[in-house]
Specification:
It comes from Glomus cerebriforme. This protein has twelve helices and no strands. The chain is an all-alpha fold and 236 residues long.
């Protein structure tokens, strides 16, 4: 007769397999419904269908098909689809790299109010992607994105305040925006918030809290946080 621990392990294993199988079934159904709606011309569904191909949700990954559906969505004026299409052009996903086209689609997305598009447009202005560098414009678009609740935009806005990019340096505001980004689950924001507590940027030094945020950033896949912990002698 199996001991109690073995029975528990067996039940957990079966439960995991069931949940995983159930999850895959839901993904497959989501793919089918997005396909039907996308083929009927729904712009938002076309964007979501592109996401399925981009991330392998309910189907095999296919960057070319992802690009094609993002294009359909973007032309149909879905702001999220426009942002995703811009990202494809910027990074050569499913198409040839074209930073000018990336900028153009980010601009359409941003002016339509998409927070991710606003963040990506800010990045174009900050780093000269498809347009001349313009730190003031970068700051303005990061601000719009951050206010709209984009965690990446909040992190980038915090970085602008910390380093005086497109605005006057303000470490307190940097800390505040890093906090919003970190709480929103953004790994880079969590890392920079850890730095704030570690070095007293816009707040009092608190090494214990700094470690907590470095660990969260590391768990979310931010390699710089993992390197920081290793340098501090902490292997997490």
């Amino acid at each position: 007769m199996k001991d109690e621990q073995s029975i528990k392990v067996g039940l957990i294993s079966k439960s995991y397999k069931f949940k995983k199988q159930n999850y895959l079934i839901h993904e497959a159904k989501a793919f089918e419904w997005y396909m039907k709606s996308a083929e009927n011309g729904n712009a938002e569904a076309q964007n979501n269908f592109g996401d399925c191909y981009s991330n392998g949700i309910g189907t095999e990954k296919d960057e070319v098909k992802a690009f094609e559906w993002y294009m359909k969505s973007a032309i149909a004026e879905c702001a999220e689809g426009q942002s995703n299409l811009g990202y494809c052009y910027e990074n050569g996903i499913g198409t040839e790299k074209d930073e000018v086209k990336a900028f153009e689609w980010y601009m359409k997305s941003a002016t339509a109010g998409c927070a991710a598009g606003q963040c990506n447009l800010g990045d174009c202005y900050e780093n000269g992607v498809g347009i001349e560098k313009d730190e003031a414009n970068a700051f303005e678009w990061y601000m719009k994105s951050a206010i709209a609740g984009c965690a990446e935009g909040q992190c980038n806005l915090g970085y602008c305040y910390e380093n005086g990019i497109g605005t006057e340096k303000d470490e307190v505001k940097a800390f505040e925006w890093y906090t919003k980004s970190a709480v929103g689950g953004h790994a880079e924001g969590q890392f920079y918030l850890g730095d704030c507590y570690c070095y007293g940027i816009g707040t009092d030094k608190n090494f214990t809290i700094a470690l907590e945020w470095y660990k969260k950033a590391s768990c979310n896949g931010f390699d710089e946080a993992k390197d920081k912990l290793h340098k501090l002698g902490i292997f997490y």
